[in-house]
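Protocol step 4 of 6: structure prediction from sequence.
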Amino acid sequence: MTPPSRTRRLIKPALGMVTAVTLAALTACDGGSDADGANGDASASAAAPQGVLTAKAAAAVVDNYEKVNNKANAALDKDLLGTVEAGQLYAMDKATYTLVPTFSEKDQKAHRSPFTYQDRQYVIPAKGTATWFAVQAKSSDAGHNSLVMVFDKVDGAYKLVLTVWAEEGEAIPKLAVDKNGLAEAVDPDAKVGKFAPSDVGAAYEDLLETGGAKAGSNLAATAPVKEAEKTYKDSSTNGTADGIATKKFFAKTPADPSVYALRTADGGVLALFPLAHTQEILVKEAYRSSRSLVPSEEQSALGAVRGDLITDRFEGKGMAQLTPKAARITALGWRHVDSR
């Protein structure tokens, strides 16, 4: 199996909210007229820059996402979910819908139960610098843990494309805003120290694939990094299936390679990035005449059958804090999306 996730809320897609608190209060990015729609652009005064959209319009986007996502969760309706989700998150959540029937009765009930986003803070870049906006929030069923969500314009509408939950003990850094309350979107390919935001995912996958023989060695030793190093060591030393099979990881291109980055108040960068790899479990040649791999219930639901080789695909997402001195991966989340 993939390295165990330390990220919360992986069973079902994130939803909902009740109140709205904006980073851009009383500034240009919430200064639109009442006519602003959920996908409208900000109509700021000529004296101030416009945001990608107004805070009021952003709230309408999130409100609609909550409503539709709750309905989709209850019915396990992938097509309905696709009207408000896209990108890496949608690739992961579609697979979750396939797996829900394998959950315990308690977990199935929890998955279908509605929940909401609370304490929202809208993070809105200046118009012309991004096609997307972000939201910091907490979930009504996840205690004090916070998350960052990214809504991007897909087929003319804002859809949720990434959500990453902060790890316990790892606070989301304060984000930089200008005098108009607008956030600064950062070029994902611009280096900050040894890494650009778009480099971090591949560096993490290097830990699983080689133990950090390449770019992974330059990542700071955070909990997710240490866990990946341990996973590689255990799999390369002990294999799996009571030692009769090998287990190897291979980095893959994510379902959606889009990376999103924001300037932090201390001058660094907060990066939200996708991940993907396959895990190959292969019976050792000496055992192939007498032993075979039996897929788990989850693997069977995703298509695996009994045999000498099972290949699992995992899609993921992560959060990192980049400064000239260090690249710190602070949170990860995974979904098992295919098995053959």
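Step 5 (inspection) to follow. The first strand starts at residue 117 and ends at 123.
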